Amino acid sequence: MQTISSAVARRMALAAQGFADPRPAGEPTRRHLRRVLSRVQLIQLDSVNVAVRAHYAPLFARLGGYDQALVDDAAWTHSSKRPRLLVENWAHEASLVPVEDWPLLHSGAKRPGWWRRYEQILDHSPSLAEDVLRVVKELGPIGAGGIERELTGPAKRAPGAWWDRSEVKRICEWLFGTGRLTTGTRRGFERLYDLTERVVPPEVLARRVDQDEGARALITRAATALGVATEPDLRDYYRIGPEVSRKAVAELVEDGVLEPVLVRDWPAQAYRRTGTGAPRSITGRALLCPFDPLIWERARTERLFGFHYRIEIYVPEPKRVHGYYVFPFLLDGELVGRVDLKADRAAGLLRVPGAFAEPGAERGRVAAELAAELRAMAEWLGLDGVAVGGRGDLAPVLRKQL
Predict the structure, then answer these.
(1) What does the pLDDT average to over 186-198?
(2) How far is residue 377's CA from residue 289's CA, in Å, rounded to a whole number?
């Protein structure tokens, strides 16, 4: 069994996530989007819009400035010339995944989601799910609010029905989680539900995958995205059950798809796809949103980079250490700083309330590179400039650079 250093493991992980690939010289296209997807496999969704929606940020980190319509068209529109590439589903969390992966996520390999508990609503309102499906069939794509209005108005409520508006929304989430509904399109960030058979191609829906096949396929995709990973890392990428994951990993090792490796200073056995190597170096820079797949698993981030990172959205402001919505800054393969970011669209500014250098980082160079990336982000977001606040040891140097 090969033993590798933590530095090699870090470069292997960065390359797997696409950070060894050069950014496009010109305008990024659907071909570049496909390349990123072949690396990361999925893109997490999140409702926070302090700086930029979470599903747009990982592509900016890897491609630089691009037209956000590239994602919108791939996920929420379809035509014969430009078929839908992505569909919403529960993967790591609510995510955009390749359309062809739909059967894998409904194979039984994944742990039951939090939305499972909403099934209890049907104990006292057994017709509610079918009522929701009927409305979506007639009026979809439609938001939860539209479904609620259609079902809960005095003239609309079915005889004997006593469910309330919140129960309608919860059943929409249950139907989404079980795969009977998905997102047809979005209005702003509002999910507009549609019947799955009107979104996912029939040949994809017709494909039947059992739990074992689904688990092996998902673990293989996770290994591709992570580069080198422990079994818990692999299972976390798609939230697969522990027993199912361990069985899949063992079978993939036996089949030669995965190979065990030892990483110095890692407490657990690691695995990589057979033949996966590491580049000699990683260069370049990137701002990573809190939901970027490189860093979303915080224990793994600390193991790879020695970088302790927690999102502080739910921490009371006086107790926050670094800020509300903090982006780690990646420079030449290391996490060297972090910036609290806010897009002030009314003022036309990308605000940086706080900027912090990691211990041992060369502040002058970090500030210069970070300033350039912040300017690029501001331009990408259609903002006029960058304004740096007073919090953090990097803030004064960064302000001079800007």
Answers:
(1) 94
(2) 12
